[in-house]
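## tool: complex_structure
## caller: assistant
## args:
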Amino acid sequence: MVGLATVFGSGAMTNSIPEIERNDLIFVTGSNTKENHPIVALRMIKAVRRGAKLIVADPRKVPLVRFATIWIQQRPGTDVALLNSMMHVIVKEDLVDRDFIASYTEGFDDGFLKSLEEYTPEVGERITGVPKEKIIEAARLYAGASNPGIYYTMGITQHSHGTDNVFCIANLALMTGNLGKESSGVNPLRGQNNVQGSTDMGCSPNMYPGYQKVTIPSVRERFERLWGVKLPEKEGLVASEMFFASGAQKVRAMYIMGENPVLSDPDVGHTVEALKELDFLVVQDIFMTETAELADVVLPGACFAEKDGTFTNTERRVQLVRKAVNPPGEAREDSWIITELSRRLGYEMKYNRTEEIFHEIGMAWPAMAGMTYSRLDEEGGLQWPCPTQDHPGTPYLFKGGFPRGKGRFTVVKYRPPAEEPDEEYPFVLTTGRQLFHYHTGSMTRRVEPINRVSPEPYMEINSEDAAELAIEDGAMVRVSSRRGEIRLKARLSKRPDRGVVFIPFHFREAAANVLTSSIALDPLCKIPELKVSTVRVEKV
Amino acid sequence: MLTLTIDGRQIEVKEGSTVLQAAREHEIYIPTLCDDPRLEPYGGCRLCLVQIEGVPRPVTACTTPVSEGMKVETTNEYIEGLRRTVVELILSDHPNDCMVCEKAGDCTLQELAYFYGLRENRFRGERRQYAKRDANPFIERDMEKCILCGKCVRVCEEVQGVSAIEIAYRGFNAKVCPPFEKDLDCEFCGQCVSVCPTGALMGKLSLGKGRQKDIKKVDTVCPYCGCGCNLTLHVARNEVIRVSSSPETLNEGWLCVKGRFGFKFISSPERLNTPLIRKNGRFEEVSWQEALDHVAERLGGIRDRYGPDAIAGLSSARCTNEENYLFQKFFRAAVGTNNVDHCARY
Ligand code: SF4
Ligand code: SF4
Ligand code: SF4
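## result:
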């Protein structure tokens, strides 16, 4: 979420899920909401039933398209051109919010305005493949609405220029003044249950809990006092660098808690090699995952139903997780394992109850200082910022301004995806999730009925493309990229556009990430290019 | 605001409310089978009949809008007689199955039969006979127990936007089913199961695992996507046997297939249940003491030899805030490096 944090000084959903009902326009881009955030989608459907307009921009005919006023089918990786072109129209038709721009933003007139000039709807059409009338209509609908909300997920962020996409979305909201109000804002939908929380809690190489930079001396000193120990000054490595760093930076040992990078990270071959090269690997998980199989030590953790604590959902709501059953056999709560290890490494962490950890979080990060377990229990969770015990929490952000002062416009130029289709690899591959499985499948694939409805890997391909390659529905195909190949069944469909194929990444026996690239990292936030790679498809 | 009188009590409600909504707001009980405040009014079950002064016949409270000065009576001998007859008619075509029915203890129809003391039935006649055959893996459909309240059909259309089921045929043969009576093939969100007032729709995973007695209910948060839906785990003998969600939650009681039916992994026999150390290329079961000592020794050794930055950690978006906090604190304060990240940056 680097992009959003740069623009506003904070990176999270600006509105709440219940506010969706009162959107009069919903702009969903790069999010298969009905399958990946089903309950958010229900609110959207409710809004549509009440008369809201819905724009869905997605290369695939995702299920939400059924409810859409307009469906924009842009070519994968061309979101910047699409959004810039919409903004071009908004400027040309003078639908910008001058007052908002003057009071709350900076950088509109210097460079930004001019940068939009070249993105006429005609240019937009040429790059994205979307008829210009649709681009114009979408721009008018968005700019003309009084409470429009933008919703996006990985489709937008997981490109080598994912941060650019986020900048564009922020520009669009800023120039129309659609921020800092109830039911209008910019809303990244977080994929996993507590990914918001793990970022909030400072599991990032450059930030302590609460987005406080490790490189700022005064911040570091505060944490040194809180934890009673001298802290490292230099920023650490991001996940993908951990697998690539060499020489003096080389990582010799890793401790991985509850993650399965072998399946979830791009370029499986490389990840496996890097993990094998380690001197020492500890994996703490609830199942013997593909990553755990490579470990020197495997520690059995507890799942969500076996512990107390909190999760923070995509709308910044901190909610109580409660223990319902005992973990199997010798498995133990992760917090117990961490404190035991810490003690053995000479740093004692002492907590008698989970709530004491929560209390310490409030000391580390003022935005959660007003929360207690009993408040979370009584009030059905609280949304940060919630700085004091009498603060009600914050359903929507940026009322009356941005934490970094003013919202900044960013000039974004369209750059083609790092890999473009050519004769050898003529198809664009996109990867993602589907309704029935979750992430790398280590949980859902062990739920027998779910596995029955969705038992095996598949590749979606447009029926016309399939016909040209003489591929029938259900036929085995070989899909190869510059990095590797997998075999799986073809599923003929109208969902992907011609020239595009889609593979869900939940299946270990045909892991989509064998094909994707780990090189094309987004320059700012280092997200690997999981969404766009080019591939060849052959019948076997 | 409007003022009206219900059962002699003067109350104020918003314009545009129905009589049923007005009564509910003021905790005046009117029985219903087909109503759900989250769905459009339907007026199908006729249990919510009430009398309004100046209106000759009883009307359904769920479809009648309030008006200024209206006088409503929700209960009297005549109305209760009508309601009793409605329930009796429904029961006349309902299997006498409460002894073994999954739904017993949580069934609106059973409650009503109890309330009206219905054991004998004046209307006993022909009963619908349907085979329970639906190969879908999640939802048991026992259409002999269906009272045709239409809630499942409406929730599927109005809330879920799927319209996977419909009421087919007419009269005695009317039946809820997917088009052409095929097996159910839908998003399996289970919204229909959650609103069904009888045992006609039940979750297959829970069958025979325990009804209402000796069940512990624990409120928690879904472990899958970032929506953060509130779940209530139903626990029997240290096993999660069913998941429900209350309408008063953030997610209004709605869930998706993963949240509602994706709990079996918790008690999977494949769960890791002991620490393992690789010895001569194979994993061996060891005690916590041995495992933790070994990890600390190896990490300590590598830190001494190559410095703290030779160690790196990946944390999980699936773990709690408290665990994530401890994990990064462990790396920064105990190991001495900022090499800590989580895999999924989304
Ligand atoms: S499970 Fe969901 S989608 Fe399927 S019939 Fe029931 S309500 Fe409709
Ligand atoms: S299956 Fe249940 S919810 Fe659906 S109509 Fe029958 S009784 Fe009502
Ligand atoms: S029930 Fe479904 S929509 Fe709700 S949090 Fe769980 S996975 Fe997400």
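## assistant note: The two ends of chain B are 46 Å apart (CA to CA). Chain B touches chain A through 109 residues (CB under 8 Å). Handing back to user.
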